[in-house]
Amino acid sequence: MHRRIIVPSALAASLLLAIPASAADFVPGAPGIGDSYYPASGNGGYDVSHYDLRLKYQPATDLLEGTATLVATARQNLSRFNLDLGLKVSDVRVNGRPAAFTTSGEHELEVTPATPLAKGKSLSVVVRYAGKPSDLKIGGWTAWHRTPDGGVAAQEPDSAVWWFPSNDHPLDKATFDVSVLVPDGTQAISNGVLQSQSTKLGWTRFNWRSNKPQATYLATLAVGKFDITTDTTANGLPVLNAYSKDLGDIDGAARASIERTAEVAEWLESVYGPYPFNSLGGYVPNVTSGYALETQTRPFYSPRQFANGANVSVVVHELAHQWYGDSVSVADWKDIWINEGFARYSQWLWSEKEGEGTAQELADYVYRSRAADDPFWTVKPGDPGAENQFDIAVYDRGALALQALRDEVGDEDFFAILKGWPQEHAYGNAHVADFVRYAERVSGKPLAGLFDTWLFQPVKPAGTAAAAAGVAGLAAVPRTPVAPKSWKKIAATNTIHEHDEHDEHEHGEHGGR
Questions:
Q1: Whose CA is closest to 390, among 289, 512, 299, 508?
Q2: Contact 96, 124 (CB under 8 A)
Q3: What is the DSSP letter of 480?
Q4: Closest C-alpha to 429, from 494, 336, 367
Q5: Does the pLDDT of residue 310 top 70, yes or no?
Q6: Within a 13 Å sphere around the CA of 485, how many CA atoms are in the beta-carbon half?
């Protein structure tokens, strides 16, 4: 038998550990998570693991009533913490006890729990709130679409504050249960799998579950009258698509595009590896916007995406985001290239597969079409600035960078990189620099210079850089470059990043949120 002897110094240390922290050791969590472009986005001091949203929505009046329960963990000794929400709050409880709360700024809900929260402590936060999302404007714009028969939440980089309290930044991803009560004859669409549906006294409740980590801006809600189609993939994944019943002449083109979701996803698995989530689908509400958005498992498509007929290319773009953007999300909004450059390049690969122009031909066309003095080349896809976050250069010049990488490392390593990256960072976050290091590790080549040329220099790459990417130098640029067959369809999806007019005064011609 061995007896443990506690020496005086060790005894003193153990006694110190037993002494509870004083009030001075507890401080408020930061009102922002530290994003380079959007300092007020998100909050510090805690991490959310799950959102349970229990909502009631009245389409006739746009009144949304909600009880949100957040399951979280304190990441520091917290005296107070913030949530992001723009609607009016009536009650907040932390760990079952009433908490004091006030508001500041345009969307900050400041919560002071009855008892300070120790670092590492699990906590539940219950927020009761209500309001009309269409009445809420933040910075002069809204992420809420009012439709003839309901409303839709879908925007980037923010949409959550219009319909639920959250830590609103991709760095804090969580699972979601979304339960929505709507009048009979109306449907509520959200992310993931429909767990159940029940009707009582003129109201119908829809219960949705998204069981993999999900950024708050990727959570979506659409209430209205939809025609819903369902299917199952060869791997057993449920597929659910929804089309507003008043789409008019574009209805057929929308269906001809989105009903190919399972086919596109199966092809993308051959490029990027196993599909990362528990369901597939897409939805087209009757909104006036022109953009599409990669809302997790169920992308949002504006009807205008199909104004000129079916366009599978936009489906390819949004589904590619399920790997690049949704499973692997930005760590900071300046890292938007690891979302958009890859989604655009996926459209080029689809064109290659369909025999409508190789990725090399598309890269050559983009390069030749833009003169050296075109402002296109002044945007740096690796850090474009908030005002250019959704500029066409982030997409097309971003895809050129990937073609340059492909030519530098060869197809075997290139496609190993494309498939390995979303596996290595699954359900997490990453920076552009992380991708550069990963590509160097897989290929065994120094690539920092290549990425600097194509992502960070505000000039058109010329001479040896262009030759290395397989595209012509400036002297060889013809007067009228010939567009590959797929170009028209790909270009038609450029409105993906042209979000509503209310954004443009803040974020420029191609601005978006």
A1: 512
A2: yes
A3: S
A4: 336
A5: yes
A6: 9
Q: What is the pLDDT of residues 332-374, one digit of tens each?
A: 999 999 999 999 999 999 999 999 999 999 999 999 999 999 9
pTM comes to 0.92
Torsion of Cα atoms, 294 then 298 then 303 then 305, to 10°: 40
H/E stretch holding 232 reads: strand 226-232
Sequence-distant (≥ 6) Cβ neighbours of residue 36 within 8 angstroms: 332, 333, 334
SS3 371: coil
With tokens 């909004």, the residue in question is: 333
Q: What's phi and psi for 456, nearest 5 deg?
A: -125, -10
Give long-range contacts, CB 8 A cutoff, 24+ apart: 337-340: 337/381, 337/382, 337/384, 337/394, 337/398, 337/401, 337/432, 337/455, 338/430, 338/431, 338/432, 338/435, 339/294, 340/381, 340/390, 340/394, 340/395, 340/398, 340/497
Beta strand pairing status for 329-330 and 429-430? parallel
Task: Compute CA 334 distance to the chain's CA centroid, rounded to the nearest angstrom.
Answer: 13
DSSP SS3 for 351: helix
Angle at 162 between CA 157 and CA 166, to 5 degrees: 70
pLDDT value of position 344: 98
Both structure tokens of 244: 């507003």
